[in-house]
């Protein structure tokens, strides 16, 4: 999507990193660039508003469920593997148990 107008920050860059902006997972300098872009680009601002509304709705409807500790540990383990550059298996062999792993 592009509004067709020239911007300092391209629409495609903003939309590619929209969830990082919504989750505040980017440097403040990038957040400032995105905010400036939304101030001058109504199609991107509309997309941002829509995604923000969906995120709030999901949080309101699903935000009260506790995440099981073992699931959280597995997810955090995968994140650490990815960050460290270790190869990540396609499926979780540890959850299948030794009897399934030996049958393959």
Written description of the protein model:
The termini are far apart. The chain contains seven helices and no strands. The model is unreliable at 95-104 (pLDDT under 50). Helix 3 crosses helix 4. By secondary structure, it is mainly α.
Indicate the percent of residues in helices.
Answer: 55-70%
Please trace the helix and strand order, writing H or E for each element: HHHHHHH
Provide mean pLDDT, rounded: 82
Q: Strand pairing plus helix content: what structural class?
A: mainly alpha
Oligomer: single chain
Strand content: under 5%
Q: In this structure, how is the largest beta sheet organized?
A: none
**Number of structural domains:** 1
Provide a concise account of the structure shown.
Residues 84-93 have a biased composition (Basic and acidic residues). With 104 residues, the chain is mainly α.
Label this structure with key terms.
Mycothiol system anti-sigma-R factor, mainly alpha, single chain, about 100 residues, Znf_put
SSE map:
Blueprint: H1 11-16, H2 18-22, H3 28-40, H4 42-62, H5 69-84, H6 93-96, H7 98-101
């Amino acid at each position: 999507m592009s509004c067709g107008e020239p911007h300092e920050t391209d629409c495609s860059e903003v939309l590619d990193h929209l969830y990082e902006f919504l989750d505040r997972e980017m440097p403040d300098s990038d957040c400032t660039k995105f905010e400036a872009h939304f101030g001058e680009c109504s199609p991107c601002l509309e997309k941002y508003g829509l995604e923000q509304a969906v995120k709030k709705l999901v949080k309101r409807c699903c935000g009260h469920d506790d995440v099981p500790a073992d699931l959280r540990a597995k997810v955090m383990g995968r994140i650490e593997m990815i960050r460290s550059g270790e190869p990540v298996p396609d499926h979780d062999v540890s959850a299948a148990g030794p009897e399934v792993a030996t049958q393959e």
